[in-house]
């Protein structure tokens, strides 16, 4: 039963991201999400009471994934190998969340800010970059670390219109990020 409930939640989140991307977050209603899914609003309410709850669940996945990378990095000696692995893990995390989620995140910054998710995500992003730059906390090293992470984020949010397989675009974005990281 839990597996089926989990599958339904994933379908809801996926359809919501499609609609948010097509119509915008503010212009999408729970009724429209339910209609696209072919379920009643009551069935949708069983899983998510509001659009904000859907976005919160997606944000929790992203924050939880970044927290996992941070825990791993804090238990690993600082240096170039750790920085490279952070980039690889960050790329895998964003890739697993999907283009629609990342594009929504970038295109709907006001919604994330209004819902209070943006601040914690920016903080986590900075923590990752600081861990990549360690042991040096040279501002230019941190700059390159942030640029490497941004290369991955932006590739998902800005390159979705290109006809590239997800694996190929992820591999390319990680390679570009690693090239930037090599400048540290």
From TrEMBL:
Source domain of life: Bacteria
InterPro entries, per the entry: DNA-bd_HTH_TetR-type_CS, Homeodomain-like_sf, HTH-type_TetR-like_transc_reg, HTH_TetR
DNA-binding region range list: 29-48
Protein known as: TetR family transcriptional regulator
GO MF annotations, alphabetized: DNA-binding transcription factor activity; transcription cis-regulatory region binding
Pfam families to which the protein is assigned, alphabetical: TetR_N
Annotated keywords: DNA-binding, Transcription, Transcription regulation
Residue intervals of the HTH tetR-type domain: 6-66
